[in-house]
Design goal:
The protein is mainly alpha-helical and 201 residues long. It has two domains: 57 residues, Winged helix-like DNA-binding domain superfamily/Winged helix DNA-binding domain (Arc Repressor Mutant, subunit A); 135 residues, Four Helix Bundle (Hemerythrin (Met), subunit A) (Up-down Bundle), CATH 1.20.120.530. It is built from ten helices and two strands; from the N terminus they run αααββααααααα. Strands 1-2 form a two-stranded antiparallel sheet. Strand 1 and strand 2 form a beta hairpin. Helix 2 packs across helix 3. The chain is elongated and about 55 Å long.
Length: 201
């Protein structure tokens, strides 16, 4: 299942592409039953959807769904920064986030590496909250987040939302200790991302 998920989230299979069991089984060197089970899980994650006559295709994320996705992310990561600020481990968390921040690009570079650093930063933000349900919820959305980002052609050319200076205000707001201000910074970050990934919305 991991190899099929990676093929979708890396952009090898594009939104709308048909996913045939026979072809996938042959390409991946596994049984059709294994492919069928993987597709069922990916359908539950929202990466795959049933089209005409039940044929499975890579899901297409509409501009409305992009906006909804980033609103949910704003809620989750807003809760994360609130819990980090209230935590006795606040100072340690800030130091950890500053280390992660340094791994983010300050200039456009390798898209795949930038994407991993970006998603790693946001996942770390959730993990540092100490809230396992929050982390699980974010992880559940990760596939759709990847598909949304990977399939934005303009984003590949100018991945501005992945830049270090776009994330620094989040860390500094957490360091400042004002939960309301930190939540506002996260909400503004996610709203800007939604505008970039769904420019026609």
């Amino acid at each position: 299942m991991q190899s099929l998920r990676a093929a979708i989230t890396s952009g090898r299979y594009r939104p709308g592409d048909h996913l045939g069991e026979v072809e996938l089984a042959s390409h991946l060197g596994v049984s059709r039953g294994t492919v069928r089970e993987a597709l069922r899980h990916l359908q539950q994650e929202g990466l795959v959807t049933a089209g005409n006559r039940g044929m499975l295709r890579v899901n297409t994320v509409s501009p409305r769904e992009v906006r909804e996705l980033f609103r949910v992310r704003a809620a989750l990561e807003g809760l994360a920064v609130t819990e980090i600020i209230a935590s006795p481990q606040h100072d340690t968390a800030v130091a950890t986030l500053r280390t992660a921040l340094a791994k983010l690009p300050d200039t456009p570079g390798d898209f795949a590496e930038n994407l991993e650093a970006d998603l790693g930063f946001h996942l770390l933000l959730c993990q540092l909250s100490g809230n396992s349900m929050l982390v699980a919820s974010w992880r559940h959305l990760e596939g759709r987040i990847r598909v949304t980002i990977m399939n934005g052609e303009a984003v590949r050319e100018a991945p501005t939302m992945m830049a270090r200076d776009r994330h620094a205000p989040i860390v500094e707001a957490i360091a400042g200790g004002d939960a309301a201000a930190a939540v506002t910074v996260v909400e503004e970050h996610m709203a800007a991302a939604a505008r970039q990934y769904a420019p026609d919305a």
